[in-house]
């Protein structure tokens, strides 16, 4: 693309205000839905955790639910966004390596790459912040600071 088109996109209010919020919601959806699925079928999740040889399956289930539902909702709302996005990125990488490490199986390899892709998107959010439509931005406009969110953008 030429620089005129790039500059027009960067200065477009829709791109700079709505796109970050939409991106956060889209990234958050998989975490919230996955966490709710674990709540609905805890035995299946415990069995899956045990099947890969991880200890403390019940604790793992509870941690995953808290991270996925709590982190997903915080990300969607733009609360402590940079910190939450970084934590969800780390969670995505660890979960991918723990549960999708049979890279000789094309399906598992694709799932691993999806986890890495989610982590990449989350790292972008961690680097650039929540955007204008977020709790972090609202708190910044009110003159309050939120740990894990150095700036509203």
From TrEMBL:
Membrane topology: Multi-pass membrane protein
Residues spanning the membrane: 25-49, 55-76, 83-103, 115-135
Pfam families: DoxX
Subcellular location per the Swiss-Prot or TrEMBL entry: Cell membrane
Alphabetical keyword list: Cell membrane, Membrane, Transmembrane, Transmembrane helix
One GO location term (cellular component): plasma membrane
Family per record: Belongs to the DoxX family.
Protein name as it appears in the record: DoxX family membrane protein
Species for this entry: Pseudoduganella buxea
Lineage summary: Bacteria, Pseudomonadati, Pseudomonadota, Betaproteobacteria, Burkholderiales
């Amino acid at each position: 693309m030429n620089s005129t088109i790039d500059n027009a996109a960067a200065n477009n209010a829709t791109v700079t205000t709505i796109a970050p919020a939409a991106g956060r919601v889209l990234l958050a959806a998989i975490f919230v839905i996955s966490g709710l699925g674990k709540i609905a079928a805890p035995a299946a999740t415990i069995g899956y955790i045990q099947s890969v040889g991880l200890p403390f399956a019940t604790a793992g289930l509870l941690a995953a639910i808290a991270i996925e539902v709590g982190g997903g909702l915080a990300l969607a709302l733009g609360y402590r966004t940079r910190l939450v996005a970084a934590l969800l990125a780390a969670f995505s990488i660890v979960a991918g390596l723990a549960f999708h490490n049979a890279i000789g199986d094309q399906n598992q390899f694709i799932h691993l790459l999806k986890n890495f892709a989610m982590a990449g998107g989350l790292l972008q959010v961690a680097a650039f912040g929540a955007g204008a439509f977020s709790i972090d931005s609202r708190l910044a406009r009110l003159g309050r600071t939120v740990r894990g969110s150095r700036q509203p953008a």
